[in-house]
């Protein structure tokens, strides 16, 4: 039996033949942090109104047993997932995941309601990102929040947005790592609107109010996430791609691209290079998988995931890009969902790092499209899996399917007891 190291050495030699340094790729991959989203652990319920309805036009389907019902359970599940993922990463929290005995509403949240998450993140060596929650709440009226015609509704959500940024600032200060705070606002109409302009103007003004206070970007960076449509908002979403391109570029806010928020054949991989040219800010991604609609399936090693990774690596955008995940599947073991999606994202990045990028660019620049095609096709069969397995082993996490055994054991001992 050849060992993981022996297989790696063979792969290393094979990659070296085409000018790829596997050691450099491994070092690079070690630096990449993925922001894993807390909401896969409990089907986007949170702890504010866990029995309430999930609104905002998103949907989690399935009733696989073992969802987390308390912050402590969610943290335990996250710890299990992180223990099976190589490297050091971040956790992406939503406001509804506050951890407190106090009865607080979204317009009253303060850093102290997230203290336990910070203590835990410090123990675990994790960074934190944050999201105000503009859904699953009775103050979302008629499908609208920040762009609602009623000022009282808008003011409620503006207050929530402002407080969310203070919580993010607190995360950034406490953890010594920038917190990315993502604004996704589901407001929209089911059927064709007469007035597409006024809600957008109101959203713009509400956001301007939320962002009025300068917060040191060492601690908090605001990001804005667009969307094409939601369930029940099929005809019109206020915060469209054009809206946030304009908003982000003029307000100097980071633009977040979610892989599921565009027309079915439209891909975010082809948007990264343009954004990188025109946005002074870093970019953020929600790596997700839309299946016929914005279904938020677990990320698999499909063409778009690989294309996203290639764009980040080939254009040297990794340092400029915060990579977050966004999927929620309740038909499978939720810890497994995290592990599969996160490991795939890392693996796709590694695969991209194992390309002879400079040589490929050189072929293209000299119009040698024959070699470009021959190399990119041949590369598909290169042994990147052996390099990945070595990376896992070096990081002390299970290699190959071994992680599934651990998830199964955890399921048996912990999840089914809930
Ligand atoms: C919804 C957006 C958004 C949410 C999370 C829960 O379509 O993608 O990012 O998934 O905020
Ligand atoms: Zn998203």
Automatic annotation (TrEMBL):
State its cofactor: Mn(2+)
* Documented EC number(s): 5.3.1.14
**Pathway assignment:** Carbohydrate degradation; L-rhamnose degradation; glycerone phosphate from L-rhamnose: step 1/3
**Primary location group:** cytoplasm
- One of the GO biological process terms: rhamnose catabolic process
Localisation per UniProt entry:
Cytoplasm
Q: Which domain of life is it from?
A: Bacteria
Give GO MF terms, alphabetically. Answer: L-rhamnose isomerase activity; manganese ion binding
Q: Which Pfam families match?
A: RhaA
Q: How is the cofactor bound?
A: Binds 1 Mn(2+) ion per subunit.
What InterPro entries does the record point to?
L-rhamnose_isomerase (IPR050337), Rhamnose_isomerase (IPR009308), Xyl_isomerase-like_sf (IPR036237)
List UniProt keywords, sorted A-Z.
Cytoplasm, Isomerase, Manganese, Metal-binding, Rhamnose metabolism
Coiled-coil positions:
none
Q: Which reaction does it catalyse?
A: L-rhamnopyranose = L-rhamnulose
Q: Which NCBIfam families match?
A: PRK01076.1, rhaA
* PANTHER family membership: L-RHAMNOSE ISOMERASE
Q: Any idea what job this protein has?
A: Catalyzes the interconversion of L-rhamnose and L-rhamnulose.
Belongs to which family? Belongs to the rhamnose isomerase family.
How is this protein named in the record? L-rhamnose isomerase
Q: Which organism is it from?
A: Streptococcus merionis
Q: What is the lineage of its organism?
A: Bacteria, Bacillati, Bacillota, Bacilli, Lactobacillales
Q: Which gene encodes it?
A: rhaA
């Amino acid at each position: 039996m050849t060992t993981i190291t022996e297989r790696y050495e063979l792969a290393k030699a094979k990659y070296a033949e085409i000018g790829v340094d596997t050691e450099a790729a491994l070092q690079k991959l070690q630096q990449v942090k993925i922001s894993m989203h807390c909401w896969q652990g409990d089907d986007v319920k949170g702890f504010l109104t866990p029995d309430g309805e999930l609104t905002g036009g998103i949907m989690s389907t399935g009733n696989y047993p073992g969802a987390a019902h308390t912050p402590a359970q969610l943290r335990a599940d996250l710890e299990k997932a992180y223990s099976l993922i190589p490297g050091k990463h971040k956790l992406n929290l939503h406001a509804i995941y506050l951890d407190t005995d106090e009865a607080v509403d979204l317009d009253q949240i303060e850093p102290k309601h997230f203290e336990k998450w910070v203590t835990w993140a410090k123990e675990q060596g994790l960074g934190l990102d944050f999201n105000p929650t503009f859904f699953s709440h009775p103050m979302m009226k008629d499908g609208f929040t920040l762009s609602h015609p009623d000022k009282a509704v808008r003011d409620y959500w503006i207050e929530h947005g402002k407080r969310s940024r203070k919580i993010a600032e607190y995360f950034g200060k406490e953890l010594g790592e920038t917190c990315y705070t993502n604004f996704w606002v589901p407001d929209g109409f089911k059927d064709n609107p007469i007035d597409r302009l006024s809600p957008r103007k109101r959203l713009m003004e509400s956001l301007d109010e939320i962002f009025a206070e300068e917060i040191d970007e060492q601690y908090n960076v605001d990001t804005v996430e667009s969307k094409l449509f939601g369930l029940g908002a099929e005809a019109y979403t206020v915060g469209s791609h054009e809206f946030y391109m304009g908003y982000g570029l003029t307000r100097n806010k980071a633009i977040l691209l979610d892989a599921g928020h565009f027309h079915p054949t439209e891909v975010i991989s082809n948007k990264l290079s343009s954004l990188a040219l025109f946005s002074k800010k870093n970019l953020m991604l929600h790596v997700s998988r839309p299946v016929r609609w914005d279904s938020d399936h677990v990320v698999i090693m499909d063409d778009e995931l690989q294309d996203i990774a290639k764009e980040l690596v080939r254009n040297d955008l990794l340092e400029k890009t915060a990579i977050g995940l966004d999927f929620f599947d309740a038909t499978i073991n939720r810890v497994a969902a995290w592990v599969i999606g996160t490991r795939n994202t890392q693996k796709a990045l590694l695969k991209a790092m194992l390309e002879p990028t400079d040589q490929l660019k050189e072929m293209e620049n000299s119009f040698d499209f024959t070699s470009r095609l021959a190399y990119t096709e041949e590369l598909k069969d290169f042994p990147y899996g052996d390099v990945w397995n070595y990376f896992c082993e070096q990081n002390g996490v299970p290699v190959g399917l071994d992680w599934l055994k651990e998830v199964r054991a955890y399921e048996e001992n912990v999840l089914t007891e809930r």
